[in-house]
Amino acid sequence: MNSAVEISVSSMQGSAPVTVVHLKGQIDAGNVGEFESKATELVQAGIANMLLDMGDLTFMSSAGFRAIHKIYQAIHPDGGTGRLKILNASEEIHRLVKTLGFDKFVGLVDGDLQDAVNSF
Amino acid sequence: MAQIYRMRAGASLEALADVRDFVTDAAVKLGLPQDAVEDLKVAVDEAVTNIVLHGYAGAEGDIEVAVEGRRGSVVLTLVDRAPAFDMDAVQGSDLNEPLNTRQIGGMGVHLMRTLTDSLSHEALPEGGNRITMVKKIPV
Q1: Contacts A90 to B, Cβ<8 Å
Q2: How far is CA B135 from the centre of its chain?
C-alpha cells in the first residue's frame, strides 16, 4: 500500500499575504514528488511567505525535509528567516526539525492557523 | 520464548508504508514507548529507502524485516541481497551550515544514527547486507 499525502493550498492574509500549504497523510520518498511539484509551482509563481500546515501530517521522512530545504533556498535565497514556517508539526516532526538543524531557519509555530498567519 | 516478528517486502518505495506499519505494530507489542516507536519508524523508513534507491537501485529484490525483543531492547534487522553498501562511507551534509548554503540531501543516514541507540551494517558473505538497529526499552 502506498503512502498517501493530500495537499491543498489556500491564501490567507495577516500583515502580509501568506500561502498556506495544508499537508494531510504521510510524506516519504515514494510520494514526496507531489509535495515538491506543488511547492515548486508556488515558488515559481512568486509567493513571498509559506506556511506548511502539518496538523494532519502523521509522518515525514528526510525526503520531506529535502523538499522543505529546497523551498527554503528558493524563498530565502540570501539566507535569513521569517518567510517559511511550519504549523502544528507532530512531536516527532518537531524532533526531526531540531535534529536536522532546520529550527534556526524554519519557524515552528503551534496553535491557531490565523495566529500563525499573523506571525509573518 | 522470544517473540520475533518478520515480514518480507519487495524493494520498492511503495512498500515503505507497509514496513513502517509493521515495525510500529511489532515495536508497540514489544513494549517500546510511543516516542521511541516514532524514532524507529523514521529510522527504518530511511534504511529501506536507501536499500531501494542505492542498494537495489531499480533492480528487483526483497528486504527481510525482523523485529524482536532482546535484553531490554527492540532489535530490528533488515537483510537484503543488494550489492554491499558501506553506510560509514556516506557523507552527510554539514548540519551546522546555514540552510541557504548547505548542500541539499544526505540526511537519511544521519537520522538512522541519531534516532537509534545503536546502528550497524555488515556485508553478508553470501552477498547482500544486514543492517541492525537497536532501540532500548526504558525501564
Answers
A1: 38
A2: 11
